[in-house]
């Protein structure tokens, strides 16, 4: 084994690093075998719920592939116009950065939607713990086990294959008394949540992507995100247009009010509700607080703190009222 090989991280569920990994690749016993296929013929899995590696983790993988090549095959699903990635999104991405045009692949055919999704979910869980996942990724994993993976039997077969590919001794597993995994309590227990919080995380799957991103960036509270998830996709998009345009933070009180009005919302009505909620009358100490559009903040207050902004507003208002009074005479 090369001196630095022991320091290399395990990046993927089927990324094994031993003395002769290339031999392992050709010896993997699968029904479909291993083939070299063009990276450009592989599409990302539709609605892929996981983020690609960034930063140090991506750089490490790029350097490893630059030195060793793609030692272990990706897993793809054959489609009418090429392939769809099941396991190996990060390896393929790193390989493209290195400049490779082909990757070794295990090709699957005829998988159902649920079976394909098991590959996507389980390989990510084998490479990262559930606790490491971002909120939207946790939601996708939980939803997959709650809704899409109906019976443990087929799921166990796939997990067993992935463990074999990873050089892990397969565990003996069985169905939960032959019953479907459709109990919220079972899902909550599996991932260490209360049933209430498990239900909340499952709701995150109904968010449009911009709000999932806000969750992952810790820019929206869980309860607010849950309320937004009950709005229609069209209403969510209208809300996002306002949020993005004004640089507005969706507070729980905003989301709760909008959820109650859902079903009868236009962008104009939504803006009125948000404007009314933003204007908070205090006990007389500070008058009224309000939000400025993001465009005005960038144009006139870039780099200023709240005190500096207040001073500029005061000067501008003083000049405006003096000018108004002058012309009124």
Q: Your description of this structure?
A:
It is built from 15 helices and seven strands. The chain is an alpha/beta fold and 329 residues long. The chain has four domains: 110 residues, Alpha-Beta Complex (Conserved hypothetical protein from pyrococcus furiosus pfu- 392566-001, ParB domain); 96 residues, no CATH class; 85 residues, no CATH class; 37 residues. It has a five-stranded mixed beta sheet with strand order 1-5-3-4-2. It is elongated. The N terminus is likely disordered.
Note poorly predicted spans: 1-32, 173-182, 281-286
State the name of the first-level CATH class of the largest domain: Alpha Beta
Largest sheet: 5 strands, mixed
Total domain units: 4
Strand content: 5-15%
Counting DSSP H or I runs of 4 or more residues, the number of helices is: 15
The name of the CATH architecture of the largest domain is Alpha-Beta Complex
Mean pLDDT: 76
Span between termini: 91 Å
Structural shape? elongated
Query: How much helix is in the residues?
Result: 40-55%
What is the multimeric organization of the chains shown? single chain
What structural class do the secondary elements suggest? Answer: alpha/beta
Number of strands: 7
Q: Find the CATH topology of the largest domain.
A: Conserved hypothetical protein from pyrococcus furiosus pfu- 392566-001, ParB domain
- In CATH, what is the homologous superfamily of the largest domain? Conserved hypothetical protein from pyrococcus furiosus pfu- 392566-001, ParB domain
> What sequence of helices (H) and strands (E) makes up the elements?
HEEHEEHEHHHHHHHHHHEEHH
What's the Cα radius of gyration?
26 Å
User: In which order are the strands of the major sheet placed?
Assistant: 1-5-3-4-2
